[in-house]
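Researcher: Going back to the complex we discussed earlier. I've cleaned up the inputs and rechecked each line, so this should be the final set. Can you rerun the prediction on the complete assembly and write out the structure?
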Amino acid sequence: MTHDPGYNFAYLDESTKRMIRRAILKAVAIPGHQVPFGSREMPLPYGWGTGGIQVTASVLGPRDVLKVIDQGSDDTTNAVSIRAFFRRTAGVATTERTAEATIIQTRHRIPERRLTEGQILVYQVPIPEPLARLEPRIAETRRLHAMADYGLMHVKLYEDIAKHGHIATSYSYPVMVNERYLMSPSPIPAFDNPKMHMMPALQLFGAGREKRIYAVPPYTAVRSLDFEDHPFRPIRAPHRCELCGSGDTYLDEVLVDDKGGRIFVCSDTDHCQERQAMREAAE
Amino acid sequence: MSTPLMEARGLQLRFGRVAALDDVAIDIHPGEVVAIVGESGSGKTTLLRVLSGLMRPDAGAVTYRGQDVLAMPEAARRRLMRTEWGFVHQNPRDGLRLGVTAGGNIGERLMAVGARHYGNIRAEATEWLKRVEIDPARMDDIPGKFSGGMQQRLQIARVLVTRPRLVFMDEPTGGLDVSVQARLLDLIRALVADLGLAVLIVTHDIAAARLLAHRILVMRQGQVVEEGLTDRVLDDPQHAYTQLLVSSVLAA
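Model: Rerun complete. Updated structure for the full complex:
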């Protein structure tokens, strides 16, 4: 497959990609630390994955196989469009199979299938600063990171328990990376947090509007913050997937009629299809 | 006498043509309450901010338990600020997180120094609310719903929870009505004696200084014009300005 000759390979020019790669290398060297980068204007609005696309463009090679998911799904507008974008501008092969992909760009989920050493997971990040809602001054949040002064984050969790009786943060649940930097895992469900811990794949995070890149290198400790007497719990809907019967995956609630009918199905469409195929093969 | 907890020598700081601090020296000993009195603009609050490391002087030295406060890296100073030191602001809104519950406000310093057991933090917060005479049932209310006096007491609980050695207080009774002031002063006096705190308190209220302080420094135009034991300074003022200050106190 060849790419559209009207564009440089993977849309961005070579020096921009080099600049982003330098930021990525720095981010990998300091796990969890947010590295500023010169985010470019992309042909889609902020909030639609401009950060993730720039990171993907910078690490993409002609032989890579790209998968893009949006809330776990391969066939939503955002996922379809970004896949089409890279097929056109980079001519790379795309896939919906997690196992076949070398680069997976994601919005708000980590695939259920365990990722492997050759793979890179690229997250789209709206708000990279985990302390953003607690400390409005960016200069001050950077100082807090520098001093590893993270008492404030625990105040937020304390308030959750005081108000709701348990830690009610169910997505974008703050993590400590390599026991040094507090990091926002992007708005993935807390259910996915444990998958980040010691993951064999490289995890890269791109925030286009906020102009930050951060990373978790392979096999790095990622710990969800909690209290000794209120330990972290990955939360999922207490149901089975209507389609594949899975009882241990993250589920979406889907309304099926206007009479209150609803079903729960896997949010990771590829994983769900794989399980359905396996079930059919067994029958 | 014991060695001072904090020592400052030759402090100088100018704001343009105004000398806010002009060769100021001060010692604070463990367990001692020192009051700085003087009129508005005499440099009291500036001195407090310089001693607590919030502001850098143009010249002079500040040492705390043998460490040079001005040369200290920021990380070390912040650590002091959340463990061995405390700062009580005049306006409780500056010292409290108004959107965070009373319990969370008290717990913040505990969590900042590594407390990770929710139940223990709650128990400690309950204990401190009682000590500052706030009903523990209001632990999960936000301070925005508290009266001014309650907010100030909450701020004191939030600062004292980690049992600091040295507390800076900037007009802690300012802006409160008289009966509330009296209760607050009483409370501060009891806590200070109980915990053996060293306190540096800035006030323009001579009566408050007499009630709380062991020693008084009188400041005027950036200089310490008189210094001594509270009763001595207030009963037998030597400097003309101190005499004026003492004679200006209204008797009810």
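Model: Worth noting: The CA atoms of residues 139 and 145 of chain A lie 10 Å apart.
Researcher: Good, that matches what I expected from the previous run.
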